[in-house]
Amino acid sequence: MRKPRTHFEESVKRSAVEEFVSGRKTAQEVADGLGVERAVIYKWRVQLSERDKGARVEELESMGHSKSEARKIQSLEAELEEYKKKLAEQVLINDLLKKLQTSRVSQSESELTGLIRTSRNLDRKGKPVK
Questions:
Q1: With contact defined as beta carbons under 8 Å apart, do 48 and 17 qualify?
Q2: Which of 14, 30, 37, 85 is surrounded by the most beta carbons within 10 Å?
């Protein structure tokens, strides 16, 4: 026998999706906490995202933009966010590469220091003692 459907308030859905998206909990953990299937959490994420997009278009229309202008602005904002994410990723990669390069330089300097000491010790051993 099927259990009856449970209807959740939008605030509950938003907080569940926020916990999942932020990484505090997995989709399965959130779903288990609410007693729903994991797929429901993914479905809520898509639904809330679409609602937010529609709300943004309505907001822009209320500011005096036409519907097509509002959609264009929204797509440009989304494109800008993607570029910001890519830039942040590239900055992170550059920082990691700089750290890697610095650690290699430090390592090679220490290897050179050891080489210099060894060559000095060999020079001392090679000289006749008076």
A1: yes
A2: 30
Quick: pLDDT tens for 34-67. Answer: 999 999 999 999 999 999 888 988 999 999 999 8
- 33 Cβ contact list (under 8 Å, min separation 6): 16, 25
Angle at alpha carbon of residue 62, lines to 56 and 64, rounded to 5°:
115
Residue reference for tokens 């998206």: 21
